[in-house]
Write a structure and sequence with these properties.
Elements (H helix, E strand, L loop, with lengths): L1 E8 L3 E7 L5 E8 L2 H14 L4 E7 L2 H13 L4 E4 L1 H10 L7 H14 L10 H34 L13 H13 L3 H34 L11 H11 L8 H7 L5 E2 L9 E2 L6 H16 L3 H11 L4 H15 L1
Parallel strand pairs: 1-4, 4-5
Antiparallel strand pairs: 1-2, 2-3, 6-7
Helix pairs in contact: 1-2, 3-4, 5-7, 5-8, 6-7, 7-8, 8-10, 9-12, 10-11, 10-12, 11-12
C-alpha cells in the first residue's frame, strides 16, 4: 500500500495530509517550518505508516519548499513537485467547500493520486549556488538601472545638453565624462548627482565581479551548454538555475513543456494540427531560450537555416521563432 502525503507550505508552518491510493484522508499534522518541524513531520509519517510506502508531494513553490525538500531527501524519502494548477483543479472538484491549509494539503495529496507522472524533487546544490549568485546579480542590475535613471534626471537639471545613453553609463569612459560635468557644477543637485555616480560605479564593480564568477561556475559545471550557438555564460547560468537538475525530466519533450516552448494543441475536426502559443511554463527559462533563438536567427548556422525554411513555408516570424525555441529546448 502506498501512502501519499500532501503538504501545504507557508513561511511559518507546514500542514501535511496523508491519503491512501483511493484519495481517502488517513492522517494530518501541522508543524513549524524549521528543521525540527520537518523532523517532527518525518517521524510522524514513519511512525504512522511504518509498513506502507510513503511518497511526499509539495506544491511547486521552491522559495518556500526548498528547505523541506532537502530535509526529506536527506532521509531518503521520495518527493515530487505538484504544479499549483493541479491543486486548483482538485479543489474545484472536491466536495469540501472553502479554503484552508488542510484543504490545500489534501488537494496536493489527491492530485498526486490522480497524476502518476509528476516531476521528482531533485537537489542540485551547484545549480542552487548559481541561482543564488544570479539572483543577486539581477537585484544589483535592477538597482543600477534605478540609479542611472535618477542620475540622468540630475544631469538634465545641471546641463540639458548632457544626455548620455543609459547603457553608456555602465562603462568607465562615460562615467568619467559625467564626473567632469558634476564637478563643474555647484549646489545640492550636483552633490546628489555625485552620490548617484559613486553608487553607480560601486554597482558596476559588483556586477562585474558576479559576472566573472558566474562565467567560471558555468564553464566548470555545464560547459556543454556553451556549445549551443547563441548561448553565452549568462544565458547558460539562467538555464542551469531555473532547470534545477536536468535529470529530473524523463524526456526532452517534458523539459520543453516545462520551459513553455512546447506548443499547445487547439485543433478539432478540419483544423487538425493547429496549435497555439504556450503561455505557461517557467517564463525565466523561456526568456533565456528566447534570447538564444533570436541570436541564432542572426548567426549563420543550422538555427538560421531552420528558421528561414519555416519562413519560406509561410510561417510568420513568431511562429518560426517558437518552432526554433522548441528545438533549442529539446537540445538542452
Amino acid at each position: 500500500m502506498v501512502v501519499l502525503i500532501g503538504a501545504d507550505v507557508h513561511k511559518n508552518s507546514h500542514t501535511f495530509v496523508a491519503v491512501d491510493a483511493a484519495g481517502k484522508q488517513i492522517g494530518q499534522i501541522t508543524v513549524r517550518a524549521t528543521h525540527s518541524g520537518h523532523e517532527k513531520a518525518y517521524r510522524w509519517a514513519r511512525k504512522s505508516f511504518i509498513e506502507q510506502d510513503r511518497r511526499w508531494g509539495l506544491e511547486d513553490c521552491r522559495h518556500l519548499t526548498s528547505l523541506l525538500e532537502r530535509d526529506l531527501l536527506a532521509h531518503g524519502e521520495p518527493v515530487v513537485r505538484v504544479p499549483a494548477k493541479l491543486m486548483a483543479r482538485q479543489r474545484a472538484t472536491a466536495r469540501t467547500r472553502g479554503k484552508s491549509d488542510p484543504i490545500d494539503a489534501l488537494a496536493v495529496a489527491r492530485a498526486m493520486a490522480r497524476e502518476e507522472d509528476l516531476p521528482a524533487a531533485f537537489t542540485d546544490e551547484q545549480a542552487r549556488e548559481i541561482k543564488l549568485v544570479l539572483d543577486r546579480r539581477e537585484d544589483l542590475v535592477a538597482e543600477r538601472t534605478r540609479v542611472i535613471n535618477r542620475l540622468r534626471w540630475h544631469l538634465h537639471e545641471l546641463d540639458p545638453e548632457v544626455d548620455p545613453a543609459p547603457r553608456a553609463l555602465t562603462h568607465r569612459p562615460a562615467q568619467e565624462r559625467v564626473r567632469e560635468v558634476i564637478e563643474a557644477g555647484a549646489g545640492i543637485v550636483a552633490e546628489i548627482a555625485g552620490m548617484n555616480l559613486t553608487d553607480l560605479e560601486r554597482l558596476c564593480s559588483l556586477i562585474g565581479e558576479l559576472d566573472a564568477r558566474l562565467r567560471a561556475m558555468v564553464r566548470k559545471q555545464e560547459p556543454v551548454l556553451l556549445e549551443i550557438p547563441g548561448c553565452a555564460e549568462l544565458s547558460a547560468a539562467k538555464i542551469i538555475a531555473e532547470t534545477a537538475g536536468i535529470e529530473r525530466f524523463a524526456t526532452e519533450s517534458k523539459f520543453a513543456m516545462f520551459a513553455g516552448c512546447a506548443p499547445i494543441p487547439v485543433w478539432s475536426g478540419k483544423t487538425e494540427g493547429r496549435v497555439r502559443l504556450n503561455r505557461g511554463g517557467n517564463r525565466q527559462l523561456n526568456c533565456a531560450i528566447h534570447r538564444i533563438a533570436i541570436t541564432q536567427t542572426r548567426l549563420e548556422g543550422p538555427g538560421k537555416e531552420y528558421y528561414e525554411r519555416l519562413r519560406a513555408k509561410g510561417k510568420t516570424v513568431m511562429e518560426a521563432l517558437r518552432c526554433l525555441k522548441n528545438q533549442i529546448a529539446r537540445r538542452i
